[in-house]
Records
---
Amino acid sequence: MSDPTGLQGPGPGGGQGSSGGRAAREQARRARMWLSPGLGVKRWLLLFAVCTLLGAVGFLHFTWTGPLHFTATRWILWLNALTKPEVLPLWVAGISVMALALGGALLSIAMLNRSMLRSTGTAPEQALDVIYSHRTLSRGARIVAVGGGTGLSNLLSGLKAHSGNLTAIVAVSDDGGSSGRLREALDMIAPGDLTDCYAALSDSPVLARLLLHRFGRGEGLEGHTFGNLLLATLSEEQGGLQGAMRDVHEVLRVRGQVFPATTTPTTLVARLSDGREVRGESGLAAQMGGARVQSVRLEPAHLPALPAVLEAIDGAELIVLGPGSLFTSIIPALLVPDVARAIRDSAAPVVYVASLMTEPGETTGLGLEDHVRAITAHLGRTPDWVLMNSTPVPEDVRARYAAEGAQVLDLVGAGGDLQGRIRSAPLLHPEDEQARHDPAALAQALVTLTPRSRLGL
């Protein structure tokens, strides 16, 4: 039986993209965007052309039957002499003049719009993206993505080309790097993964670049990103990020929504197979000592979730878990009681995006079935589908990861139940020297799993 999603079981696949064709693909993409239904542009261009034609006919009637008859006659005789009827019939000359006039009118409108856009601070080359976002993407599938780390922001950067109805629910238990320093100093939630997601969904390339700028010098600033400091400022001003969420989305021009799984500072606690407990996710891998993670929890345990988060889950058409670190990105976001309860009660299908490789220390020795089993144990619901990559990882990449203690995450030893949940597609980024997901390919594969896509809508 064929799979209605168009995704297949594990197998060879993939393709190589060329940087030379990137510009051509971008031009083709923008051309298709102009032709997208519901954009609210083609209808007005058509109306303009029809009205221009009617205006031309009306003006011709006025000049031929009114006081300008003499002028119209002289124009026709002049055009007739200029174009030489034996070379170019007079009616063809008339159509040519009319086409030139219509083209000039359209050019004048385009230049007028360009001037108006510049005066409002919107770059003309971004106008199409803004119109497309508000008109077409606003009707896209309602997708909720749960997790953290670079995997989640990578996914969002691909999904925002398909829908404006995106909600990212981000784990905020990170206690390392810039996030850890700000948490300790201000008693706030970890802002790092939130910053990455805001940058991925921002409609402004300039803002996205600024958010990710990391200070390389300056006492107290070195190591911090501008985005982290911005969120820390808003958190301090509003007494927490909960009251600043609306301002953040508006200021950063986010295509969708980004919310923390909880607005209360929390610490990840991992229980290992040798009975030890490790507090804090930043040092988890280093303290494993050959043991495996049996379970994780958050302290404090009873953490509140934002009403907007629960509302987004309730209205979701698809819930995506990952990609990202299993025990330090995906599961921590599921440990907020109200978030887990809302996902369990949701009628939307849940998709787990499998990592490409295991993570040294954290998931060493774990297979894909172990990953799914861990999610089920902490969430209380087994993912409906597991999306995995079908493109073989190059041997040199495998060797480089193996030297660090990581292996390709595969289906070896997987049971029949998991096999039935697998959906696969070529997801490996063709131009990346690391084993990473291609955002565009991953987003396309997930969109095909939405109910409306499966029904052919």
---
Amino acid sequence: MSGKPLFPRPIAHRGLHDRANGVIENSASAFEAAIAAGYDIECDLQLTSDGVPVVFHDDDLARLTGRTGKVSDITAEEMTRLPLLESSAGDCPMTFADFLARIDGRTLLQVELKRQQGPATPKLAREAAEIASTYPGPLVFESFDPAQIMLVRKFGYLGPTGIITYRYEDENADFSAPQRFFLRHMLHLPFSRFDFLSVHHEALTLPMVRIMRRLGKPVTTWTIRSREDALAARPHVDQIVFEGFTPERPN
């Protein structure tokens, strides 16, 4: 890609959060801290029971709110009234619409569409695309799920889309061996037609990652947690997604 870089500044993973000091991931406080420090922002979208995208990483409520159950079990109104555990500011999760209104174009947003089940997959893509359609600032969508990338474009999103990937080497209940091969080698490219990659830092030397970058697709890497890891990743990437330290910013 030519011209201005797609990812000009380091990207704060779920905002510039610091739980020890009461700043919780994917919270208003974490996002304001990232903007104040001059970083771009990565965040996550889940879908509530009434079909509203909310800025929240886990599909389960327990780790971040102390409440049992799933995000998909409660309404957006209930979700946005749940205090985030240990938040010194009393932050609660935000809807995607409220999040965009707060950020208001002040920094680039790398927004992950989390994997959903069944009809929630197109619902999240449709709602996210519709909400983003009037947003005036820089925003990109990404997902581990190639279907989400295809769907968000189908529903009218015109900006850059990215595939999130890693080595897909460990056997697990989520993917069969053929599915892992398909995802690791990005055989969905003719359909997903992604514009950039977001790659786990241990997968940066995978052949398809290297090929895609040579073909001009920007690569971000997650999650970088030290200056040493940032230096090691630098030859292979266009930008880092970081947490737990403050990387240098370009002048």
---
Amino acid sequence: MSRDYANRAPRSKGRGSNKNARSPGHKPWIALIVVVALVAGFGYFLWTIKGSADQVEPARAETKAGKPKKDPNALPPQPQEEWTYLKELENKQVEVDVPPPETLRSTGPYQMQCGSFREESQAEKMKAVIAFQGMEAQIRKVQGGSGIWYKVVIGPYERKRDAERARHKLQAIGMNTCQIWLWQN
């Protein structure tokens, strides 16, 4: 279906084609009445507010004349303390059982365990990585409740601080599994 737009009759620009024209039933005086009513209502509202403010002002003036003026920057009085635990704590005695310094330190050499494997080949690989860092590791074969385990152990260290230095050296290469314990044969 084709249309011939070139030979089409021009649209008429008469009164009947204007879509924005007012409808015959439109009455402008209704809008004017609504606007006047709104303005009158708003004026009445303002007049009632002003009237109520005039009635309140004399009452305020009477109360201000009867009382002495207070300093607006003055602080309120300090409240009374209701808590009794502060006084109780001043006289409280605390008893603490502190063990002697000898028992605080665990005695004996330290070891560092870096892994525990089911297969000896995995333990040998970890031992090789540790050897590249200049440390000598041992592999211990242990019979556990769930079978045989191969533990990779470094040590003994006389002081825990020495074991911690070695652990930090291994952490620098990404080996974060090492734990420091007391030496066990």
